[in-house]
Specification:
Strand content: under 5%
Structural class: mainly alpha
Oligomer: single chain
Length: 114
């Protein structure tokens, strides 16, 4: 968490020993340890809450995507049903005549001339 080396820890310990004295230093170290534990647990709790919320957002996003996918499936089914209804109204021979083979310009000219 902090980039503190061993030499910095020794320096902090010596300053604490000089400021607090040998009688109060153990109590101060214990209280500092308790506070550090509380802070660490608090940060971990916040981290877990954020991760849980991110997971909930992912679930919401997936549900939204599934809803969109369901709408697309419904539209595809409606389109397919309409196409099937359109094709079932006309006999197949009539559809083939409507589509017909494209004629090239020379064949069309001969038919017009005759």
């Amino acid at each position: 968490m902090f980039d503190i080396g061993f030499s910095e820890l020794i320096l902090i310990g010596i300053v604490a020993l000089l400021v607090l004295g040998p009688d109060r230093l153990p109590d101060a170290a214990r209280v500092a340890g308790l506070w550090m534990g509380r802070i660490k647990r608090g940060f971990n709790s916040i981290k877990e809450d954020v991760e849980r919320e991110l997971g909930a957002d992912d679930i919401r996003r997936e549900l939204h995507n599934e809803g969109i996918l369901e709408k697309e499936r419904k539209m595809l089914k409606e389109t397919t049903d309409k196409a099937n209804q359109m094709f079932s109204d006309k006999p197949l021979d009539a559809l083939l005549k409507d589509v017909g083979a494209p004629k090239d310009s020379s064949t069309a000219d001969k038919e017009q001339n005759s």
